[in-house]
Amino acid sequence: MNTVGEIYRFIDEIAPFHTAMDFDNVGLLVGDEKQAVDRALVALDITPAVVEEASACGAQLIVSHHPVIFTPLRRLTAGSPPFLLAQKGISAICAHTNLDLAAGGVNTCLGEALGLKQLSLLTEYQGSGLAETMAGELDQTLSPRAFAAYVKQRLGCEGLFYVEGRLPVQRVGLCSGAGGGLMPGPEAGIQAFVTGEAKHHELLQAEAAGITLVAAGHYDTEAVAVSPLAARLAQEFPSVAFQAAKTMRRPARYL
């Protein structure tokens, strides 16, 4: 039977934990690396509902994108996800910005979900050679409005907002999650940029640059990586039943 430590080491091979951004908290955050695993959930977030799902199906491990412990804990109270994990004996491995930057990671999965071809590095993270943003080509040129509708359909968003650029869209830049501030200028050769979140001043910058900026939601631009990661882990560890958490959900609703 495989162990938490073996699964941790494989994730470290495909998305090295040391490549995570300085502010991040990644790795084995709850549990025991010697714990045996025959069932595991993969999720975007470790919420109480996801922990209960893992417990109900007999999973010994949850692999998540967002860290279940992000800032230093000042208290550990009943009902909180870290408390529930410890109470139920479930380990948690969290791969956050290291998985964003990795080849085949979250940004790659977003590009594939959007149907982009010739995906490649657009901008790198601090000279590391790792893709902070990526870019790819659409099969057909779309108007800015049609492109925004295309993103909504491909990602299954309940809603999104966008800045309408000046040019038809063929080459698309992207960054999953909160990537509005990472949008390059028009000199990068993109006509559109897709991310999860964008601040007001970033929308104004996109408008001034004439780039179609689509903010499709943090959840929707990152949840696309959960099933591919579960499949990749299942292939590496055939004796472990990996599955995407069914209780994952958007924390926000749209009117």
From TrEMBL:
Pfam hit, one: DUF34_NIF3
Matching Gene3D superfamilies: NIF3 (NGG1p interacting factor 3)-like
Residue positions binding a divalent metal cation: H65, H66, D100, H218, E222
GO cellular component: cytoplasm
SUPFAM superfamilies xrefs: NIF3 (NGG1p interacting factor 3)-like (SSF102705)
Entry keywords, A to Z: Metal-binding
InterPro entries: DUF34/NIF3 (IPR002678), DUF34/NIF3_sf (IPR036069)
GO molecular function: metal ion binding
PANTHER family given in the database record: GTP CYCLOHYDROLASE 1 TYPE 2 HOMOLOG, NGG1 INTERACTING FACTOR 3
Sequence similarity: Belongs to the GTP cyclohydrolase I type 2/NIF3 family.
UniProt name for this protein: GTP cyclohydrolase 1 type 2 homolog
Annotated organism of origin: Hydrogeniiclostridium mannosilyticum
